[in-house]
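Discussion board: Methods & Data

I've been asked by a reviewer to show the raw model output for two of the constructs in my manuscript, not just the figures. I'm not sure how much to include, so I'm pasting the format here to get opinions. Each protein appears as its amino acid sequence followed by a line of discrete structure tokens. Is this the kind of thing reviewers expect to see in a supplement, or should I convert it first? Here is construct A:
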Amino acid sequence: MRIQRQRNSLKGLPRNIWAVSLTSFFMDISSEMVINLIPLFLANTLGVRTGIIGLIEGVAESTASLLKVFSGWLSDRLRARKWLAVAGYGLSALAKPFFLFATSWGWVAGVRWADRVGKGVRTAPRDALVADSVQPGQRGLAFGLHRAADTGGALVGLLIAAGLVWRTQSTALALTSSTFRLAVLVSLIPAFLSVLSLALGAVETGLKSQAQAPKLAFKALGKRFMVFMGIVALFDLGNSSDAFLVLRAQERGASVLGIMGMLALFNLVYTLASTPAGRLSDRVGRRQLIIAGWLAYALVYLGFGLARGVAHIWALYALYGLYYGLAYGTAKAMIADLVPDQLRGTAYGTYSALLGVIDLPASLIAGALWQGVGAWPGLGAGAPFLFGAALALLAAFLMLLWNPTQAGADG
């Protein structure tokens, strides 16, 4: 009993979990210093419309979709995870300096897409490395800790970005080009620390199963996994880029510094909720936590659609952090429950690819609903959020109805 309690504690987690968590901590410091300023840089400095911003953000996530599947499958095929993940983090770190020279939306898009290719290479092998490194009863805790570290880095990155905004333009409503480029320059330091943390801190585990290396065939992932993916796809169609949340906050009157504060609050709640939620999913089941998270998301998006002032946006960002803490890491732990260990890389690649593919139409729909397309003027700033809330409620209902028959699928 004492050994079991130790395994279910943070002290019982192996070295790889801490190395991967530190890597994500540094990379999110770097990413969050820049990623949330990109829509403001595009809209305020370059004068880009929301439809183009939706296109950039949608393609940014979708462009690496096939890479996520291939990279996950390749890690299964090679029975190796670490160095593919290192390569992906390295590519993202090398792409970031090119933001310093961006003078058009096409340039921003190119750098953003190159960064996402790096994410496509690293995500599935990294998640599979986490799953391979722990026992089944530790998966929720391991992924919860990883999400907490990832989001803790995002919080630190946002606070640094907020400090830079405060020093350079105080409470101005519009982001300046010089502030954006300064944030990019500072972000390069944690980006390269991230690559070093994984390269020097993690060890290759290999696959525990001795089964033959898999072919790239989705059928082998099983019906339960495919049903789960179908429900997730429906939810994600209403989950447009967070760039629209940033633009909505600005549209409601928030300053750039205020938006940084809202994002910091979001990441604080996300960080605090992730590890306890992961541990709870090990005990009570994954579906329950995912459903609760999706219901929180529906409330958040309904609130963004109806928000009247800046104070409402602050409260909604806090609830948004709770959604992520409950659902995001839990979904990744559930994937490890649903597929054989020799197919985990392929499964995580498929999951990430699906989200990437859906992100493009989700963001295009959001941009069109907000400001229209062609001669159609759209339905206004609240429309994409009401659409997202409706799909989240439908997905939560379907998840409630779905009941995998095999033991262990639910946590």
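Construct B, same format:
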Amino acid sequence: MGRFEAALRAPGLGVIAEIKRRSPSAGDLRPDADPARIAPSYATAGAAAISVLVDERFAGTWDDLRAARTATEAPLLAKGFFSTADELRTAREAGADAALLLLRDLDDDLARTLLAEAGRLGLDALVEAHDAEEVARAVALEAPVVGVNARDLSTFAIDRRAQLALLAAIPADRVVIAESGIESRAQGAAAELAGADAILVGSALMRAPDPAVRLAELASRPLVKVCGLTRDEDVAAAAEAGADLLGFVLARESPRAAPGVLPVPETTLAVAVWVGTAGSSDADLDQVHDVEAGKVRGREATLFAGAAPVARVLDLPWGEDDPGHWARAATAEGRVVLAGGLGPENVAAAIDAVRPWAVDASSSLERSPGIKDHERIRAYVEAARG
């Protein structure tokens, strides 16, 4: 295992931050990008690895990789359309820790040969797939690091739902990377919950006024959930404030019951909230609370992505307090969504005490049950995001 693979096997969702001056799908992004300046800023901002385009179609050169290598010790991925052993040797000599292998352009025999050559050179290989057939090929080739690109390289269209299904199909012992079109923390979280160990982000960083600041924002946790939404105008206010997860209570007995899962921006994730058993909805995630006699819901819940449990929701008892709630939540294993009495006044302290994967607020953000106070939503999201 090389430095690139090892970095991506670290706990949590890693980010491979990309340096590219232009994109065939979007045109010029940052024509004056200086790898010697951007690479160390990415490393400081928390990139697990750095991808450098060396292909002229992206206005990249091998000198860009050499400049990045001189400027940082972070693992570097050489990204181009490689099909020969000589190109892999050039990548290694220029300072790469890994190289991209596109299955779209390689048959199995050549891919196997290049994987072996990369191993001999001490290079990791990111084997990239675009569809179910290519994912199956990558798995059969025993590629340790598999990327799933959401972009069709012929039409440049993004199909995020197809990508998530493919990510979930890759064996858990592989390093899995979601590539292309990720512009928000919620989109990265969707990939994480589908099984991705890392996301590769390029255009969203290159378009930003400060790519490193944008990287730090995309990689930051906890996610912020606003729950109990019942109106389109409240959905819009929560999304505009920067909430990542938007919750809709579909338990009819709740005073915050929504008419259904309302439309949400594609940069966020919709969460359907149920009691007892999840029903059918258009939500990205389901939050299913335990049943408790005499109460609208039980205390704890499980967050599901499809049929897979992906996080624990640790809440207060319905209508009650619990002074030890944060202390117990801080010792819980796995992804924790912290809920219960959170609002603008205390969410920052709760995050410091618990270090959750996400925080969740509902009633403290209301003017009346199911009707949100937009100023409190903004204050809560701002406090949670620091």
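Answer (T.O., handling editor elsewhere):
This is acceptable in a supplement if you add a one-line summary per construct. For B, something like: Residues 108-121 form the longest helix (14 residues).
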